[in-house]
Specification:
single chain, 136 residues, mainly alpha, 6 helices, globular
Length: 136
């Protein structure tokens, strides 16, 4: 049985939707000053909606795509939150903060902001996105 080919543009839109979710998560942080790890569960729901709306395949590829969607959203939002936490009080914008943030400092801030409960929520969200993305 052959696998139907999906255009590159649809996969690109899927990644852009993950980046947009990370941007929304960062905006939510800037208003609440909390990392809001439960938004990862909402990212899993958004991943499945994006898979269905864009007509991307179910099965193994859909499961992997759903988990990657959540991973992109978590990674980018964590990096942006770390940059805002450091650069915001100094008066820097997000882009300037990201350009001045070293990888080791970013990793340390992300590690300090996310304890075991947050990491468990992220893993559960990735698993849910993979399970729903598989969609038998």
């Amino acid at each position: 049985m052959s696998v139907p080919q999906v255009s590159f543009i649809r996969w690109l839109f899927f990644v852009v939707m993950a980046i947009a979710f990370a941007a929304a998560w960062t905006v939510a942080f800037s208003f609440t000053h909390r990392t809001l790890p439960w938004l990862a569960l909402l990212a899993a729901v958004d991943a499945v909606i994006a898979l269905r709306v864009l007509g991307l395949p179910r099965g193994r590829r859909g499961a992997i795509a759903g988990a990657i969607f959540v991973a992109i959203a978590v990674a980018l939002s964590s990096l942006a939150i770390a940059a805002i936490s450091i650069g915001g009080p100094a008066g820097f914008g997000l882009v300037e903060s990201l350009s001045r943030l070293s990888p080791s400092l970013a990793w340390e801030l992300v590690r300090l902001a996310n304890g075991l409960p947050q990491l468990l929520v992220y893993v559960v969200a990735m698993e849910l996105a993979a399970w729903w993305g598989h969609g038998r």
